[in-house]
Amino acid sequence: MKRKIIAYNLVLTDALEQLDDSFEVEIFDGINPKTDHAFLHALKDAEGIVGLALPVDKELLEKAPKLKIVSNNSTGYNNLSIEEMTQRGVMGTNTPGVLEDTTADAIFGILLAAARRIPELDHFVKSGNWKQHLTTAQYAVDVHHKTLGIIGMGKIGSAIAKRAHFGFDMNILYYNRTRNIEAEGKYNATYCDLEPLLKQSDFVCLMTPLTSETENLMGEQEFKLMKKSAIFVNGSRGKTVDEEALIAALNQKEIHAAALDVYRSEPLSPDHPLLQFPNVVTTPHIGSSTFETELKMANLAVENLLSGLLGQRPKNLINPDVLNR
Ligand code: DGY
Questions:
Q1: Which fold has domain 100-282?
Q2: Cα(219)–Cα(240) distance, rounded to whole angstroms?
Q3: Which residues form the D-isomer specific 2-hydroxyacid dehydrogenase NAD-binding domain (predicted)?
């Protein structure tokens, strides 16, 4: 009998060609994993799952008694209940090391878009309203030589710091669980606490993973600490931000603008209040979504899956404790 694999929201399914005939793959896209009958049925025999943002919790694990590995096609793995998986001997993997530059480009891109009001002014031109010179109400704000506060100086945070330092002569502050000496040396980044970072930064860029410590990291108090002229950028996960508090801060003009790639609930509903603000730039969680990088990620995710299924240690194993059980 062939070994069953589930591919869940894996767009570039060509990557599955790495799997030989001893595997049978069932592909699921855009389904509700809690209720879809075919998916729930496939779980019973599945030894491996490869895909994007599947909530792997106790409930799912109970329905998948043969599961050996869940290979996330993303670097973030907040969708995996790692402790629960480790207890049951299920490996978890992710795809770091191939998407940092691409994601940093995108996040720096939305920062620039918000500061220079690019989407708003694009709409102004395309809607035929560019009939005379701009008014001061349409002027933007500079990015170069300003202060950028990065919350979460991991690999992507560092790649953003690199762009800010070498390309835009920005002054960089950062807040992280641990000091990032390399970023301090290379990009002249200064380590500081969250409060001074929020008070001093012209741009606050949130890049931290979502954990129990970072959930709602940006709330009412944090937005109040920011400069009224500051721009907030979120390239982490939606749940790191209290969206109600962000909306209130925008309404009360406690911050100047926001640039968001991630949301508490994705896809973002078309009537979401954040969409009413011309000074909020939105993109649909596209940090890593280029042809080149998505292909690298999908190949790496399938490579991790295959190693786990063949009894080898996957390159990007998140829960090595699973091997000591
Ligand atoms: C990641 O890799 O975590 C990206 O945000 C895509 O989910």
A1: Rossmann fold (3.40.50)
A2: 9
A3: 109-287
CATH 3.40.50.720 fits domain 3-98+292-324: yes
Which one of 8, 50, 75, 234 would you pick to mutate in the ligand 1 pocket, going by the greatest count of ligand atoms within 8 A of its CB? 75
Q: For the segment 50-77, what is each residue's pLDDT rounded down to a tens digit?
A: 999 999 999 999 999 999 999 999 999 9
H helix intervals, the chain: 37-43, 58-62, 82-87, 100-115, 118-126, 155-162, 168, 181-187, 194-200, 220-225, 243-251, 291-309
Q: Which residues are catalytic?
A: 237, 266, 285
Pocket flag, ligand 1, residue 208 (CB < 6 Å): no
Write out pLDDT tens, residues 185-238: 999 999 999 999 999 999 999 999 999 999 999 999 999 999 999 999 999 999
What is the average pLDDT score of the chain? 97
Give the Cα separation of 40 and 246 in Å (integer): 37
Q: Looking at the chain, which residues constitute the CATH 3.40.50.720 domain(s)? A: 3-98+292-324, 100-282
| Cα–Cα distance list, 274 to 228, 277, 279 (Å) | 18, 6, 10
Ligand 1 centroid to residue 74 C-alpha, Å: 4
Cβ(172)–Cβ(202) under 8 Å? no
Residues 223, 251 contacting (CB under 8 angstroms): no
Percentage of the chain modeled with pLDDT above 70:
100
pLDDT digits (tens, 9 = 90+) for 256-286: 999 999 999 999 999 999 999 999 999 999 9
User: Angle of helix 155-162 relative to helix 100-115, nearest 10 degrees?
Assistant: 50
**Is any atom of ligand 1 closer than 6 Å to the C-beta of 76?**
yes
Q: Cβ(152) to ligand 1 under 6 A? A: no
